[in-house]
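Hypothesis: this fold can be encoded by more than one sequence.
Test: take the structure tokens below, design a sequence, compare later.
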């Protein structure tokens, strides 16, 4: 068993002075989404971080899923600015681009050679190291603590994955206040993604005793906080704090295990049907759990059921999951993007081709049964 996660995590506003220290007198390129760029100017906390730098340059990323075209533009720009730090502010996409950019700068490859290595699955060696800081503005992906980045070729509908210890950020600064302006819908999808990621790290052949501990804490907290997202009877800041915590815990869990079948199924749902990532993953959560229970050789699902014994005393693990997710009406939300079931079924051949599917406990899942029961 091993567990390696080198990211220095700074959680909460009170950590702000330490983050200032990390950035102080650095020459940084700031990769950010448009929304994050706006919030830098209206948020004193972010403003102070930028002002502590010796010099800085912004690169504002195009919105949408991370893709080769935008990455190529990023790699081909800024050759004159010799940054010694990368700061990434935004959602999962901004963080994915920053990981690629960090690896690119360390590799000393040309943009073309770097993209060629990325697309041909060749390993990329980072010869030099550049300090990096992630400041996520939405709680869910956990990307700030994982060594993975995903880039899509939108023309060929092809997904490329980077998985390298050089992709880890050196530091992650999580300030829940930054996520408070996210829309209710996106907040729910992000929370469902984090819950699903924690779950996927358990029904996963790579699960071990240490990753399990992070995942189970994320799941327990999700059982408390997900219902609050629909009720709106707790202060937004309190809910956001818990969501950020779930995201970090789940992110650390999948940094060791990767995700599994729900994520593999979700990718074509997102790039072909534009179903938001969190919703696309959460859609099959209960059905995938059910199909994995007979393959629980290491006993982590049984252990999860025991660890959740205080929730819905008479329910088994699957029933607990169903009762938690039922109020979100996931199938109805999916129907906002899909006219009929066949639109989903037509993508079935692309749902098991991803490496994530190979992490799943059940090595030969019945896809048709999973999709049909999730749709109903
Ligand atoms: Fe995810």
């Amino acid at each position: 068993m091993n567990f390696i996660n080198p990211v220095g995590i700074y959680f909460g506003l009170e950590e702000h002075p330490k983050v200032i220290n990390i950035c102080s007198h650095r020459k940084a390129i700031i990769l950010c989404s448009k929304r994050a760029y706006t919030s830098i100017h209206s948020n004193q906390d972010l403003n102070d971080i930028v002002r502590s730098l010796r010099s800085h340059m912004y690169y504002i990323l195009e919105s949408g899923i991370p893709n080769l075209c935008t990455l190529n533009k990023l790699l081909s720009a800024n050759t004159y600015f010799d940054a010694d730090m990368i700061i990434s502010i935004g959602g999962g996409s901004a963080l994915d681009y920053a990981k690629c950019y960090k690896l690119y700068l360390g590799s000393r490859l040309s943009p073309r050679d770097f993209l060629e290595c990325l697309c041909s699955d060749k390993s990329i060696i980072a010869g030099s190291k550049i300090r990096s800081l992630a400041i996520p503005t939405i709680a869910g992906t956990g990307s700030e603590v994982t060594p993975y980045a995903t880039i899509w070729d939108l023309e060929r509908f092809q997904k490329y994955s980077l998985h390298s210890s050089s992709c880890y950020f050196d530091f992650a600064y999580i300030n829940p206040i930054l996520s408070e302006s996210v829309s209710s819908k996106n907040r729910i999808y992000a929370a469902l993604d984090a819950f699903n990621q924690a779950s996927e790290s358990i029904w996963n052949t790579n699960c071990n005793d240490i990753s399990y501990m992070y995942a189970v804490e994320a799941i327990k907290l999700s059982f408390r906080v997900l219902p609050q997202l629909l009720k709106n009877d707790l202060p937004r800041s309190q809910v956001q704090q818990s969501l950020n915590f779930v995201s970090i815990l789940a992110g650390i869990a999948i940094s060791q295990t990767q995700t599994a079948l729900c994520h593999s199924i979700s990718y074509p749902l997102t790039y072909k049907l534009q179903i938001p990532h969190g919703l696309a993953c959460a859609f099959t959560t209960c059905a995938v759990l059910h199909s994995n229970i007979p393959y629980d050789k290491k006993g982590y699902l049984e252990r999860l059921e025991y660890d959740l014994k205080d929730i819905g005393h008479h329910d088994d693990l699957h029933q607990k999951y169903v009762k938690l997710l039922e109020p979100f009406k996931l199938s109805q939300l999916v129907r906002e993007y899909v006219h009929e079931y066949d639109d989903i079924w037509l993508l079935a051949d692309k749902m098991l081709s991803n490496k994530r599917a190979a992490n799943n406990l059940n090595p030969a899942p019945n896809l048709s049964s999973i999709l049909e029961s999730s749709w109903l």
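Residues 209-231 form the longest helix (23 residues). Residues 183-375 form a domain with the Dehydroquinate synthase-like, alpha domain fold (CATH 1.20.1090.10).
Hypothesis status: open.
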